[in-house]
Structure formats: C-alpha cells, structure tokens
Specification:
By secondary structure, the protein is of the alpha/beta class. The chain is built from eight helices and eight strands, in the order αααββββααββαβαβα. α7 links the parallel β7 and β8. The protein is globular. It starts with a helix and ends in a 6-residue tail after the last helix.
C-alpha cells in the first residue's frame, strides 16, 4: 500500500475513534495530512489499539524509514581518546542504527503529548510508533519514573534495537549539586542497564538541555566525565558510545571538551 493510502486510512480511523471532526481540517496536501496524523497520534492516550491499525502504522513508518538516510556505526569516526569508543555526531538520533538510543523523557515515560513538538521525546515516539507508548504504559502501570533512573523498551520502527528511557533534572534557576548528581545518574543508569542487557553500542542525546534548561556546556562536561568514569570502571563493556548533538553549537561544546581533555569534574 502507498503512503498516501495508509495516511488516509489511519486518519479516518483516528477521527472516528476520537469522535471529533478532524476531517474538517484535512487538507488534500499529503504533507499537511501527515502532519495532522502525527499530531493526533501525539495526543492519543495509551488506550489499547486494534492490531490491524498498528500494522498499518508500522507499514507507514517502515516506508518512511526506507526513504531516510540511516547512519551506521562505521560511518561515525571515533575521537582520539584513551578508550577508543567515543564519538560526537550531529544528526537525527532516530536515524541511527545502533543497539540502543537514549530518550530524554518526562516522568510518565509515555512520550510528549504536544502535537508535532520538536523535542526528542516526541520524535522518538513518533517514529517508533504507537507501540512504544503502549509498551511504556504497560511498563509504568500508572507510576512515575524517578529522575536519574533508566528503563528499556524495544525500538519498534526505529533502526535501533532498543530505546533506553531516562528523566533528567529540570532546572528552574541555579544549578545545584543535586541537579549535577541527578544528571550523572541519568548517564550512569543508562550505561549500567546497557551492560546488563549486553548492549554494545549506545547513543546519548544531550539530556536535560532542551526544555529542562540544564546549561549546555556543564551538561556536556558531566556527560563526558560520567561516560569516561563508567568505561574506566567497566573496560571492554561497550564498543561505541555516541554523543548525539543537534546543533553546531552543541557539537563545538563537545569537541572543545575533548580537545581540552576536560573530562574530570
């Protein structure tokens, strides 16, 4: 089935499910229809869903995945460091073919409910598909995740195998020692979970630096120092750790840290 047909079928279903006239706003333009579908799925609570509908979404997301440039480990060079497993890469984490990508989520771990939001949580849940929200809902069972811990699910329609979910500290003013410790815990908890699951390659976003307002440079220093500490304590555990950045500024921050070998806090 073509993408256009899949989007039309999914829009029809979700409009009927919500008992709302989203159809009044459906453009004949494919991009607008696809954007509307994403927004509807973003706000949909994790109610059970007919397997046939899930398969339609899987088919759509797999077709879209085939159109994307997937980046594999061999295409990302290592930084010249003592561990020979660290990389800085700027790009879309949902297009990385690694064992696990890390999602910086909220305490519900159910994804971002803001339609078409640009955060990493929204992107990961959007392109993994509804199955990810349903899986997280089953895993959390109404509970909230504590800041600094980590949980793991499948990645469904992403090119990675797993998604490791963590909740970083939210900064409302001055960064405290507790905030720093919680951010360290995010990285270390993810790495411990990866080790437990025998995950060999993992990609981290810049946890807490978006809408959670953790200062970028300090967050990067903590990220690099924590990963290096883990690698020192657990040699041979990981084949690659990627620091995935979104902007040129973020990339420069990480590269400066490695140039200055500023990895000890």
């Amino acid at each position: 089935m073509k993408k256009e047909q899949l989007v039309d079928q999914l829009l029809t279903y979700f409009c009927q499910e919500a008992e709302q006239s989203f159809s009044l706003f459906i453009s004949q333009n494919y991009r607008e229809k696809r954007k509307l579908l994403r927004g509807i799925v973003n706000i949909r609570p994790p109610y059970p869903l007919d397997e046939n509908i899930l398969k339609l979404e899987d088919e759509l997301l797999q077709l879209e995945l085939k159109e994307k440039k997937i980046t594999v480990i061999d295409e990302i060079p290592c930084i010249e460091d003592q561990f020979h497993v660290l990389s800085v890469w700027r790009g879309d984490i949902t297009t990385l073919q690694v064992d696990a990508i890390v999602n910086a989520g909220n305490t519900s771990l159910l994804g971002c409910f803001i339609p078409n939001h640009s955060c990493i949580d929204n992107a990961i849940h959007t392109y993994a598909g509804i199955r990810l929200r349903l899986s997280c809902n089953e895993m959390m069972n109404g509970k909230e995740e504590k800041v600094g811990q980590a949980k793991i699910t499948g990645a469904y329609n992403l090119p990675s195998q797993y998604v490791i979910h963590t909740v970083g500290p939210m900064i409302g003013g001055h960064v405290t020692k507790e905030d720093k410790d919680k951010l360290r815990s995010c990285y270390y908890s993810c790495l411990e979970l990866a080790q437990k699951k025998q995950i060999r390659t993992i990609a981290f976003p810049s946890i807490s630096t978006g809408v959670f307002h953790f200062p970028k440079a300090l967050a990067a220093e903590i990220a690099v120092a924590t990963v290096c500490e883990f690698l020192k304590d657990n040699p041979g555990t990981l084949d690659r750790v990627i620091f995935d950045v979104f902007t040129e500024e973020d990339q420069e921050i990480y590269e400066r840290i490695f140039r200055n070998k500023k990895i000890n806090l």
